[in-house]
């Protein structure tokens, strides 16, 4: 099946492996007339670039993007935008022995079961480098959304048992620290935790939070294509995500209706809510308040500690995973979550355009 | 947009409103040769039928299903299966005043924002009765899966702060109690909690858990159409779900790699795992162990307590929601979660059939 | 696979067999706010209704449609519109022996090869009655298009070797004769030809032409989703169609560029063309002139003459097909062609709404 | 909308413009285990390569393909295959004045109407070079089909009024003449016609025929996803095609049922037909005989003769199109028709795999 294409009207088709020649994406359905340069894309790619922090893999990649089509005289033409990033620092030698066994927590075993064999170099298609295509496309979606007044604030909300202090939330700090946390205090605590974890040849889990501001109400489709349903798929499709929450998320199952419900209120002639437990979505459609979602990432499965597993010959063995790995996934995944949310929301905005006859008539008058 | 069609090869198209003439579903892509009767469907529909428990709405509906097409001489023909359930107990009078204001926690406001007006009777299309189509289709998917050796165990895992006792798990008890819990002790505790909640004119949240046994390994597609991503969409598309977890779910963000990873082990000549924190899915593909997922439902938004809201004229008002409502969503949603999981998994099995050239050649030899 | 769902944003899901309980369609993606009654649908269905002409099957069906959902207070709500037509005059006894052999020119053999068995009564799902769902949905699409100023003129352009006289084209005559031809002279000639054909226990082919007026320019997508490509699929999916032409159609392969090209010209301040060989489509997008398409229908395969075929036991046999059959397909298919064209064009109009950033910004301002 | 993605399970996403940096395609859904090299692709691309015949544009391009992903150790891995062809001979200077007016028969006007502006260099995305992606993907589809015993014979069947002589059909001659005709006599006649046409600064239309041998019966889906419907879309989506015929095509509308019908017959213990008017498809499914389809191409719209048109300022003007153009489209389009047919048929084979429960059970046993 075709599992590497996403979206309904704003469609992205990603490709590439960790240790292949290049990775990239084709964006089909980008509207014409958007000013777009490689710099717009590069800014986003740099947020997930490896090798520039003590808490990320030492594999250094410039991840320089080239736009190959779909842009003419500085503007999108409405035809497919093809973008490519060449791999430059792949060292296949690192991965020779991985070919013979199945790493715990990785997709080695499932890939072999599905396809009969796999590109074992650096995880092949299941590598985190697969997200390059998502982020390059996400940069475009986010740029369009910004023109519509819709913006994103995305950050690491917790690492292990260290959670952010919401009273000290400082949006400007997010991109100033390599853990992408929004307050200095928790960043420092988390840094110590991460150093300890690395010292123990271990890795750790994390939670990424994304806030979407400026949404018009009524976006999303009732029943199967609910906005939250599509966001859930988008976010859960990111490697290592094991849970997705909207608004209060798992907490709702413990609470009562009188608590979960958000009252509506007219303030300064505009509709508002007395709280936002719903996370900005009611009945699968945006309600005009901020969309709030959380993605829970498991710890990086590649750890240098001894683990039990099997090899392709069917023997029980013990392994320590060597090579260049991140000790945590969340910080570099912040921009991936934001990208997938942006693509999904933009697509929902497009889908919504034919929902009312009066609006269609105005459009075509 | 077309939001009421779901699935890629096993496609379901649902329709109908709470207080319309009927509800139903068309299943397109059901393989030929399955023995199918209305009784097969009815068994599933009865698990979500209202009016038969002190903890569900007093609206009594027999929800009798009629198969209109796609079955000939007791077997599916491969052509669309149309199924219909007539509404019999709708009382529109109940809903006169709802037309004028927006109920907190409901889709009233978002429907009006999207479409300009709405069928306000009983929530219209956003009513829980919408799930009739899902369950009728799910009954077919589950029957096919059973022939392939894949089975479901689905139950309420918690209600408010009452969680099940996993040491006393009794599968046979699930369908014997109206809360669909798997142990008597928690059922009794939860019953008391529910009675108290109802006495306070309130409602309460709940968590539904679904275990899928017998999955072959390698099902699901890497990248966007991961099995867990598709399950996340399927489950989050059910009204009132605000979070979805696979395996350890939200807990993974607090744990380390040495804990999150499941070791592989050969036992009795077959591949097994030393734990199942991954919930049966690695890299978006089934790993052959049980799939475990959790859906968190918010409390029923319709409560008879006083709530703040606004009316269509733009006034701030206070309302108490009358009518016939469930005080909890989870128990009746158990079969809905199971249905959506079954449809999604069956679709993934179909998608997987063209993944390897050798298997395609065997198929067409 | 799911072969009975059509459309991208205006999606129709049809179901039902010739001799089953009923046939119908679910329309998902119809915009909210359209005034819609059963009469709007019935008018279209009556144009394909059997039993009311000497040149159609004597099977009499009222084909009365019932709308089951998606309409509230006389207007579409934006949610799925389910429509049903009960079969009343099915006589299964007619079809007993058909079960045992494969009728030439029919789908009996291919159905058995695909599905292992078939509903043989009246052709089952491959019956012309399958088009009821298309026409019910087409009536809605055409009504929306009319509000946008887009209208259809569809008629039989030839029967056997009798072609219409374009100099005597009289649009009002089309619905006044049971052959749906646009001039009296050819209608009379064709009537004689048909009577002769029937007298010889034979049937005859025909060509249906469809003109779409009022199209805005720029509708359709470059490359795969060209407007003509989508129309070709839509029309070729109608049973018995073996060729589809746009504009000059097959003639273009015989002509030169200086002939095939249509010059542009400014007349009365608006863009016009000096000819319309392109049939209103250039590069897959509407050019603002009339869209012209032709569908070629083979003769009805059910004929009472002796034909060679095989039975399920693998014997060579000879058969005469009895039962109630049309001697020609075109006249009753006129409204089917119009319906499929309307659905396709409406879908293309919806798809086109997100093609330009400036228009998207106006929409969401 | 996303108009540059085609296919359901074997999905291709093409990109690139005539005078951009490169063109290419991402193939998603190619099964794992196919031996694949750049040479396999290059062979197909060379069949449409420009600059190597007196009857094609003098623009010389090597059209050398590079595979960037999805192949490991010489075999497809099941993940996306990205292929790229760099433009090397684009001369934008040629196209300066085209920016200001609308060429008759081209997509200039419709592109501007849809998107507000266009990449005017060499037709941009509407150039024939767009088919590079189709052919690169088609080479893969055709290679898989060959392993399943399905092969293609595709050729130019007529140019202007010169048709092939079917009695002298010589398959081996097709690739030995630059017009890709299957008999020497008509090739020579057509060459003279073409030289004359070019001398008159004109171009000419042509018809391409494609025969598919080795099809199993039962492929294609009833109703909308009929095999012929999908082929019609695939072929009509190729630039300059204005008509598509299956089997007898337009002729069926002139004939009788006793002629159009193909009798079934058992010969040497296998099912055969006494004729093949149906072109190998009955009720939208393959009947096991050869599939026969015809695509009618209009003459190349770029001609050096004087034509009437308008410029962007709204003036009526006369133009002669200069630059490097083919005088005929068919010969270089032969491999494009074959590619689109191959992709469509492969996709139908994949779709068909879940049509019967017994076969699904065998697959997953």
At a glance:
4 copies of one chain form a homotetramer. The first copy, chain A, has helices at about 40-50, 110-115, 130-145, 185-200, 225-235, 255-260, 330-350, 355-365; strands spanning about 5, 10-15, 20-30, 65, 70, 75, 80-85, 150-160, 160-165, 205-215, 240-245, 265, 270-275, 280, 285, 290-295, 305-310, 315-320. By secondary structure, the first copy, chain A, is α+β, with helices and mostly antiparallel strands.
What does this structure look like?
The structure is a homotetramer of 365-residue chains. With 365 residues, chain A is an alpha+beta fold. Chain A is built from eight helices and 18 strands. The first copy, chain A, has helices spanning 38-48, 108-115, 131-147, 184-199, 227-236, 257-260, 330-352, 357-364, and strands spanning 5-6, 11-16, 22-28, 65-67, 71-72, 75-76, 81-86, 151-159, 162-163, 206-213, 241-246, 264-267, 270-273, 281-282, 285-286, 291-297, 307-310, 316-319. A five-stranded antiparallel beta sheet of chain A has the order 1-2-3-7-4, with helices on one face. In chain A, a hairpin with a 4-residue loop joins strand 1 and strand 2. Chain A is globular. Chain A starts with a strand and ends with a helix. The model of chain A has no long low-confidence stretch (mean pLDDT 94).
């Amino acid at each position: 099946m075709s599992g590497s294409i996403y979206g309904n009207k704003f469609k992205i088709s990603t490709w590439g492996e960790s240790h292949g020649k290049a990775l990239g994406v084709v964006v089909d359905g980008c509207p014409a007339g958007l000013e777009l340069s490689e710099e717009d894309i590069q800014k986003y790619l740099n947020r997930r670039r490896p090798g520039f922090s003590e808490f990320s893999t030492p594999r250094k990649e410039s991840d320089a993007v080239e736009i190959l089509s779909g842009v003419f005289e500085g503007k999108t033409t409405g035809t497919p935008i093809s973008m490519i990033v060449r791999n430059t620092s792949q060292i296949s030698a690192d991965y020779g022995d991985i070919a013979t066994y199945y790493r715990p927590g990785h997709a080695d075993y499932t890939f072999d079961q599905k396809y009969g064999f796999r590109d074992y170099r650096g995880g092949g298609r299941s590598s985190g480098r697969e997200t390059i295509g998502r982020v390059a496309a996400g940069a475009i979606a986010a740029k369009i959304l910004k023109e519509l007044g819709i913006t994103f604030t995305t950050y690491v909300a917790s690492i292990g048992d260290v959670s952010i202090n919401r009273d000290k939330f400082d949006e400007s700090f997010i991109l100033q620290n390599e853990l992408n946390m929004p307050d200095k205090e928790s960043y420092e605590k988390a840094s110590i935790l991460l150093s300890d974890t690395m010292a123990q040849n271990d890795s750790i889990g994390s939670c990424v939070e994304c806030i979407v501001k400026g949404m018009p109400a009524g976006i999303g489709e009732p029943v199967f294509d609910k906005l939250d349903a599509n966001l859930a798929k988008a976010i859960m499709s990111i490697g290592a995500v094991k849970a997705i929450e909207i608004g209060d998320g798992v907490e709702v199952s413990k609470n009562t209706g009188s608590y979960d419900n958000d009252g509506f209120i007219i303030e300064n002639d505009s509709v508002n809510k007395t709280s936002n437990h719903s996370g900005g979505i009611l009945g699968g459609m945006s309600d005009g308040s901020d969309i709030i979602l959380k993605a829970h990432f498991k710890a990086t499965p590649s750890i240098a500690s001894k683990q039990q597993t099997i090899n392709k010959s069917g023997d029980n063995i013990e392994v320590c995973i060597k090579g260049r790995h991140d000790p945590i996934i969340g910080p570099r995944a912040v921009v991936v979550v934001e990208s997938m949310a942006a693509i999904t929301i933009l697509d929902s905005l497009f889908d919504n355009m034919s929902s009312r006859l009066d609006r269609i008539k105005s459009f075509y008058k």
